[in-house]
């Protein structure tokens, strides 16, 4: 049955006559829609559909600027049934001959003269360009948006016309924009709050009543509110006169030429050609041509509490159990609390963090308590700490994909350190740290092209002896796409610690390396300074790696790599530990999963590593 129905549908053959691909696509789509109606129709109806197909071809050509074409449609038959042969002689394509942009309302005042000049300069459909219906609508929509997004929220298009001179193949464009009064921002109203206090919204939506309307500011407030953990959605707008969306005034906007009746079908919002409704009631404004409208913030609050538990496995630490409890709004305050624990064979920790809402400049502040125990390569450390952190993330200028992250921290810690076969001591410290990261990659979670650079450092003091210590660290990584799917990656890391020889420094300030994402083929943090039966942090670090990943398809691949580096008393004392091997690669929504087999030349040992290859 399906085959019979398909056979009765005419086969369409179009001779485009030199029209561009966009015009041919518009013709094909229009005629196909009519041809589908030809199934199971009688002869009289088929004749009518043929006429409709020819008219649709004319209309499609008009939307692409061809207003005087010759179109023929000849019906025939072949072994599959009826055929429609459509021949097109497009004629000369209409181009824009003149543009007349007229402005009325407050925007005509002398103080807006430069803005009006720029609006005319930025008009998209310029003289000499082909008159294409979609470009015409886009140009009008953009012009109206450029007026209404700042100062003139109530701007509307009161007239627009495209007068086509078919013989000369030119279009005379005329558009009139009424800016209306200047709009200022009035009192703030907030809707949707249940648990979150008003002061959280006030933290972001900051302005003086009577300030000039600027849609960009409203968009920034909305984005800032949505970026917090307190809301699932946020909407910031001005309450327009009349209490809702306003219809446009009825003004004709049809190009005066055959087939142009469809020209207004996709006209932009605010275009007077679209609506036959009555114009909106005029806003009440003062004698100086100004109106003040309330600012409205509508929010949908996020769930107040969340508990998650996860179980994982690590090539070094074995099975791992983690739990996290998160609560928005604590004791009526607009803060987020996170508390949890993590347990594996090498490390056990519990923590409590309080996150402040981001500031207007994008700073994210937090304070936290930590209890942590680790026993790695004979170095047993128990830490109790109180810390504070400030982070900031920002985008590069314009449409740049570059991202910057900056982190400052202050940590008051008390460590109890046991060295296997050696000393046991306590170490109270106060440390300040800072790190700057620049990320320029095509995909944050699965990069194939780009680079990362991170520079970090810190300064601290031992509270029992008053001895200072300082650290500097540089990390970099670069990706090059090879062919369609393959990737070449190079990464490096260098670090230096400065302290008097007899000064004990916190474990996380010294340098140890080895394991996945550092030097594969060696145990986790097994490369450092040997002290008694333990490996402790070294004053210097140098690590480099080169890797080539070949993907068989979008999901599965394999890689080969060489890692090298050392952590030693000084750069001159280093004897580079070499590791090399092969591995499997699996792309997942969370990033590429690496499963590597590596041979550590120094230890003459073969080891298995797996990790998530996310750009740091």
Automatic annotation (TrEMBL):
Localization = Membrane
Query: Which stretches does UniProt call biased (Low complexity)?
Result: 257-277
Keyword Membrane recorded: yes
Q: Does the keyword Glycoprotein apply?
A: no
Q: Give one Pfam hit by family name.
A: Omp85
Report the residue ranges that make up the Bacterial surface antigen (D15) domain in this protein.
426-616
Q: Where is this region: Disordered?
A: 241-281
Q: Which UniProt keywords apply?
A: Membrane
Gene Ontology CC terms, in alphabetical order: outer membrane
Question: What is the name attached to this protein's record?
Answer: Translocation and assembly module TamA
Recorded source organism is Achromobacter agilis
This protein's encoding gene: tamA
């Amino acid at each position: 049955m399906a085959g019979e129905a398909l056979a009765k549908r005419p086969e369409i053959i179009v001779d485009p006559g030199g029209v561009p691909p966009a015009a041919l696509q518009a013709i094909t789509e229009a005629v196909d829609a009519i041809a589908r109606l030809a199934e199971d129709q009688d002869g009289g109806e088929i004749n009518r559909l043929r006429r409709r197909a020819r008219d649709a071809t004319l209309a499609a050509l008009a939307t692409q600027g061809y207003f005087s074409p010759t179109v023929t449609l000849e019906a025939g038959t072949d072994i599959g049934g009826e055929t429609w042969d459509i021949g097109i002689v497009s004629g000369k394509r209409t181009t824009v001959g003149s543009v007349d942009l007229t402005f009325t309302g407050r925007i005509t005042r002398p103080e807006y003269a430069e803005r009006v000049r720029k609006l005319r300069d930025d008009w998209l459909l310029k003289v000499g360009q082909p008159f294409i219906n979609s470009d015409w609508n886009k140009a009008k929509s953009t012009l109206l948006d450029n007026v209404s997004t700042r100062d003139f929220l109530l701007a509307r298009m009161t007239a627009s016309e495209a007068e086509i001179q078919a013989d000369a193949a030119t279009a005379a464009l005329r558009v009139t924009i009424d800016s209306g009064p200047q709009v200022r921002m009035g009192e703030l109203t907030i809707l949707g709050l249940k648990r979150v206090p008003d002061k959280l919204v006030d933290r972001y939506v900051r302005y003086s009543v009577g300030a000039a309307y600027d849609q960009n500011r409203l968009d920034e407030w909305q984005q800032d509110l949505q970026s917090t953990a307190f809301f699932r959605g946020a909407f910031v707008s001005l309450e327009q006169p009349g209490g809702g969306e306003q219809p446009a005034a009825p003004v004709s906007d049809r190009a005066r030429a055959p087939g142009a009746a469809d020209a207004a079908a996709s006209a932009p919002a605010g275009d007077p050609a679209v609506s036959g409704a009555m114009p909106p009631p005029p806003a009440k404004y003062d004698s100086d041509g100004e109106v003040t409208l309330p600012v409205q913030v509508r929010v949908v609050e996020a769930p107040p509490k969340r508990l998650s538990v996860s179980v994982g496995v690590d090539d070094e630490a074995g099975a791992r159990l983690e739990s996290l409890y998160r609560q928005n709004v604590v004791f009526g305050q607009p803060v987020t609390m996170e508390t949890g624990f993590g347990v594996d064979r090498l490390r056990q920790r519990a923590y409590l963090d309080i996150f402040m809402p981001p500031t207007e400049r994008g700073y994210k502040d937090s304070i936290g308590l930590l209890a942590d125990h680790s026993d790695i390569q004979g170095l047993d450390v128990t830490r109790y700490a109180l810390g504070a952190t400030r982070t900031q993330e920002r985008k590069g200028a314009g449409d740049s994909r570059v991202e910057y992250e900056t982190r400052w921290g202050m940590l008051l810690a008390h460590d109890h350190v046991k060295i296997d076969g050696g000393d046991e001591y306590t170490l109270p410290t106060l440390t300040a740290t800072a790190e700057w990261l620049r990320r320029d990659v095509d995909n944050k979670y699965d990069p194939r092209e780009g680079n990362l650079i991170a520079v970090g450092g810190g300064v601290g003091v031992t509270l029992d002896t008053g001895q200072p210590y300082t650290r500097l660290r540089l990390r970099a990584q670069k990706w090059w796409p090879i062919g369609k799917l393959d990737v070449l990656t190079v990464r490096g890391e260098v670090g230096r610690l400065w302290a008097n020889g007899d000064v004990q420094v916190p474990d996380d300030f010294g340098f140890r390396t080895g394991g996945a994402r550092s030097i594969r083929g060696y145990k986790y943090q097994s490369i450092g300074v040997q002290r008694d039966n333990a490996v402790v942090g070294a004053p210097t670090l140098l690590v480099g790696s080169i890797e080539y990943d070949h993907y068989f398809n979008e999901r599965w691949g394999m890689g080969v790599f060489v890692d090298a580096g050392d952590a030693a008393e000084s750069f001159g004392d280093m004897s580079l530990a070499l590791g090399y091997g092969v591995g499997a690669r699996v792309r997942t929504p969370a990033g590429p999963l690496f499963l590597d087999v590596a041979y550590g030349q120094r230890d003459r040992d073969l080891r298995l590593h797996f990790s998530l290859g996310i750009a740091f």
